[in-house]
Amino acid sequence: MKLTAQHLAKTIAGKQVLSQLDFTWQTGEIVGLVGRNGAGKTTLMRTLVDQYHADHGQVAIDGRNLAEAPQARQNLIYIDPTEVFFTRMNLAKIAQYYAAGYPHFDQNRYRSLLAANDLPLTKRYGELSKGYQALVVMALNLASAVPLILLDEPFDGLDLFIRETIVKAVIEEVAAGERGFLIASHDLAELDGLADRVLFLKRGTISRAVALEQVRSEAAKLQLVFATNQIPAVVRDRGQILNIQGRVITALFPAYTSVVKAALTAAQPVLMEVLPLSLSDLFRSEYAGEVRHG
Ligand SMILES: Nc1ncnc2c1ncn2[C@@H]1O[C@H](COP(=O)(O)OP(=O)(O)OP(=O)(O)O)[C@@H](O)[C@H]1O
Fold it and tell me: Which parts of the sequence belong to the ABC transporter domain (predicted)?
């Protein structure tokens, strides 16, 4: 199953938050959604599920435009963690609501996910700590048996063990190929090991979509020291400088070809070392120098 967002635009309170936004995402895929604070990640999620009506553009699942075939929306779930309607309900009651909304809701799955984490059905959601609330949201997402799951900051404030429980659940669900996750997160380290692709949201649109395995095979992050203070042309022309400390230059080369390597070697570096390339490096290079408007 494949979701396609085309030319999405949304203005809120006079501010154009999304504009000409396009991407695809399908089951079997874990896609990360990253961006600076206020970039519009939550707005995008709300727009995908029509909690916010898009001003322009469309969202389709397997070619069915959700505006014209609203029943296709049942293939998509977004539980907005900051605005849940069930704070005062106990965990059993919440499941009844979801079972009414999602015809394939699996009560046994929900109960076993809660039991595995010692969460009694009699507890009210609002009485739980933030981490356990995140687990309940995850249990609802999974038990709803919906193919395309939107997660908004699922790792925010979670301890290592709860975080691992959520990561494991995501990986297991996707492995079977019937689910896909779109995960908005500032936790770049967690996304780095989890996402197949990462979408960078900038100025209201997807400025870059990166397949992490592919980028790691094509790009390189290097630490370089040259004998003089002059930065060689190849570094400026073919690389993106991430950091300069004294004479130590850390640069990202998006296309680290044999030609680039030869040009660097020809510049006779005193030190030239390949460093592990992380999602944080890609984030830094994408957003460096971005002018912020709040
Ligand atoms: N209901 C609203 N009323 C007014 N402005 C809004 C509303 N919802 C979103 N915005 C504005 O839209 C922009 C995008 O907000 P959004 O919450 O989507 O960003 P985000 O990328 O999820 O941010 P963060 O990473 O900080 O959670 C912000 O400038 C925000 O102030």
Answer: 3-228
